[in-house]
User: Which sequence fits this backbone?
């Protein structure tokens, strides 16, 4: 055991003395965390197409018409699912926004003079940009609905007649009541009058003079349930993933370097077994990645106000992530036999998998088939485990799936790497 | 004691070592002399257990039993200085020694004493705490050799230890090999430099294309395979060269016929031995 620890300590010592290795293992991820954390904190632009869950709690012709407008508007991939299921999806980060059309929505849409249709948006707090875009699409659809109403004298006449009956039924006679009834009489003539004076050709919409076409109440799903304190909670999770990638690539290179410099021959000639050598490499990689990812999140907690929802689960996620990438390191070592090849192959494989796993571009921006494909990426499961412990508020049972996947990948990859690794020195 | 008993090793169609047999004697420096690609490093790799012979046996013959170098525990008794400088450049010379010492089971004061002794052996005591990347080529070569003996092995294998070093550093390495011999170590020394084998080795095995061509002491090899020496003489008629096994008699005979202005005698050496055995020069 002493020999294994000595070899692992030597590898870790060398890793931290190697400027390039240090850069990719600590500095680069830290810079990413700070940069993207700061960027997401002030980001207000939305993506081009966003998957949302939609619940029509009104179930009227008006609400159905509005949903039709949303679907026709483009930019949103709408999934109609039950409210509780939709909320769970948002909480898990699988859907950016849940839009609920509240009861009375259709009636308000058809009578804009007396009520404003109400929508509730339940938002994943890390998806502010997406939420902003959804809000825009909702307002656009509501504006279009109002414009259609204002352009249709027959619809306005029907609505006016309903309002007149309500006023006459519930409001006692007064000068104000008479004035209001007179105005109502004139409203159906508005489109005709606009045409007569030619105003239609210079106006851009028909919402002027009215309040906002839609009342949107936005709630943060995670804010109700242990959400992240700030955008650094997500950027540090991604940064921790990058330290794992950097560490595993560096260690896979270290085996190639040992081979090319002849130190591997020295190790093999020493009174140690190949199994001890493997154990030392694994232990070094595990220790280094565990240390660097822990150091990063500690920095996030102490300096950037990141508040994990569960420290024990965070420790579990850190351990499982490191185990996974320890195995990946071993596979990379097999593929790249020289220092340059190990580096090229390591980053060449890591980058696409990281993209696929949401390490660079959020998963919701990807097509559905690509999101499904992302399940093969260890990076996706690592992020899920980290985020689950840092801000998604996963329970132990929810954490088991990503952790089990990570450990399984780690064990299988390490076994494959260990059996295929050639301890030759040439 | 290292024994090669009819050992062969193939890599695909290439027979790198072909029926090689020899046995080291106590306290000797044993040379493996041959051109590049002769099979020297393959033989070394089998001696330290990195390769398994396809045919024959490599063993450490002990009084009580034969030990297989492929068993990790048996490797405590051997030390290897590979042809490449096999050191961790990012850590200090002392830390390199400490690390490999720990792998050989050294701990505490024993380890520190051996580290100090090896730094002294390599004349690196003053720079022991410097990282290896700051060392000169010669210093790295000496440390490469020192690491091989950190655990005080019985047998030291030096694979082309002077490759790429300047003459001064080469001499420093020669002195350390002689120190090892004086300290009672068995040393296997591979080289393609005839001068090194001639200076350092008690016995030399000449190998070519994996086959053992001859094995003996240097004088015996020269006597058996060196052939006549060359006597070069300059007279009034110009320069002439004469093969001879008795240069004095040949010179006297020449002087009887014509006045010799000056002469030079080139005795046979391992280069001529190799030439006579293989039909080509060592550096071909």
Assistant:
């Amino acid at each position: 055991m002493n020999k294994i620890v000595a070899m692992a300590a030597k590898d870790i010592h060398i890793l931290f003395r190697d400027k390039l290795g240090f850069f990719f293992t600590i500095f680069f991820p830290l810079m990413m965390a700070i940069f993207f954390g700061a960027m997401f904190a002030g980001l207000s632009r939305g993506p081009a197409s966003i998957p949302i869950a939609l619940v029509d709690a009104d179930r009227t012709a008006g609400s159905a018409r509005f949903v039709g407008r949303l679907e026709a508007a483009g930019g949103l991939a709408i999934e109609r699912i039950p409210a509780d299921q939709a909320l769970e999806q948002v909480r898990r980060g699988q859907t950016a926004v849940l839009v609920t059309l509240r009861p009375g929505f259709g009636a308000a849409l058809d009578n804009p003079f007396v009520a404003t249709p109400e929508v509730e948006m339940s938002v994943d707090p890390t998806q502010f940009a997406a939420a902003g875009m959804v809000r825009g699409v909702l307002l656009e659809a509501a504006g279009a609905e109002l414009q259609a109403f204002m352009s249709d004298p027959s619809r306005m006449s029907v609505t006016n007649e309903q309002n007149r009956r309500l006023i006459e039924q519930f409001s006692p006679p007064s000068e104000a009541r008479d004035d209001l009834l007179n105005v109502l009489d004139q409203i159906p003539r508005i489109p005709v009058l606009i045409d007569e004076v030619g105003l239609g050709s210079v106006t851009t919409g028909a919402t002027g003079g009215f309040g906002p076409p839609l009342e949107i109440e936005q709630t943060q799903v995670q804010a109700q349930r242990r959400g992240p304190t700030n955008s650094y909670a997500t950027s540090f999770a991604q940064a921790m993933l990058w330290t794992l990638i950097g560490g595993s690539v560096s260690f896979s290179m270290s085996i190639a370097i040992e081979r090319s410099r002849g130190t591997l021959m020295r190790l093999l000639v020493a009174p140690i077994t190949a199994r001890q050598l493997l154990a030392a490499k694994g232990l070094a990689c595990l220790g280094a990645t565990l240390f660097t990812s822990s150091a990063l999140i500690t920095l996030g907690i102490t300096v950037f106000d990141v508040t994990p929802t569960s420290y024990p689960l965070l420790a579990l996620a850190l351990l499982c992530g490191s185990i996974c990438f320890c195995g990946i390191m071993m596979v990379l070592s097999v593929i790249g036999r020289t220092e340059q090849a190990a580096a090229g192959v390591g980053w060449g494989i890591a980058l696409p998998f990281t993209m696929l796993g949401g390490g660079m571009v959020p998963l919701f921006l990807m097509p559905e088939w690509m999101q499904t494909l992302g399940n093969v990426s260890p990076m996706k499961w690592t992020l899920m485990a980290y985020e689950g412990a840092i801000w998604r508020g996963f329970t132990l049972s929810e954490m088991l799936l990503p952790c089990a996947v990570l450990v399984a990948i780690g064990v299988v990859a390490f076994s494959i790497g260990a059996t295929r690794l050639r301890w030759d020195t040439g | 004691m290292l024994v090669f008993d009819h050992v062969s090793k193939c890599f695909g169609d290439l027979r790198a070592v072909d029926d090689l047999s020899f046995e080291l004697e106590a306290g000797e420096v044993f040379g493996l002399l041959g051109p590049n690609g002769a099979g020297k490093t393959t033989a070394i790799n089998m001696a330290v257990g990195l390769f398994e012979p396809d045919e024959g046996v490599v063993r450490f013959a002990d009084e009580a039993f034969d030990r297989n170098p492929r068993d990790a525990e048996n490797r405590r008794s051997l030390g290897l200085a590979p042809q490449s400088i096999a050191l961790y450049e990012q850590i200090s010379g002392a830390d390199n020694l400490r690390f490999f010492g720990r792998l050989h089971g050294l701990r505490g004061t024993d380890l520190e004493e051996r580290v100090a002794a090896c730094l002294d052996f390599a004349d690196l005591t003053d720079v022991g705490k410097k990282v290896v990347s700051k060392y000169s080529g010669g210093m790295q070569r000496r440390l490469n050799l020192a690491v091989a003996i950190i655990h005080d092995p019985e047998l030291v294998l030096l694979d082309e230890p002077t490759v790429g070093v300047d003459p001064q550093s080469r001499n420093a390495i020669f002195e350390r090999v002689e120190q090892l011999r004086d300290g009672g170590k068995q040393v296997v020394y591979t080289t393609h430099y005839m001068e090194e084998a001639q200076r350092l080795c008690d016995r030399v095995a000449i190998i070519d294309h994996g086959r053992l061509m001859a094995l003996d002491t240097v004088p015996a090899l020269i006597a058996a395979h060196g052939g006549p020496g060359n006597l070069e003489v300059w007279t009034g008629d110009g320069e002439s060269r004469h093969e001879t096994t008795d240069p004095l008699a040949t010179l006297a005979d020449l002087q009887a016929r014509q006045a010799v202005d000056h002469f030079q005698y080139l005795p046979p050496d391992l280069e001529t031995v190799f030439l006579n055995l293989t039909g080509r020069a060592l550096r071909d």
Summary: The radius of gyration of chain B is 22 Å. Residues 162 and 170 of chain B are 6 Å apart (CA to CA). Chain B has a mean pLDDT of 88.
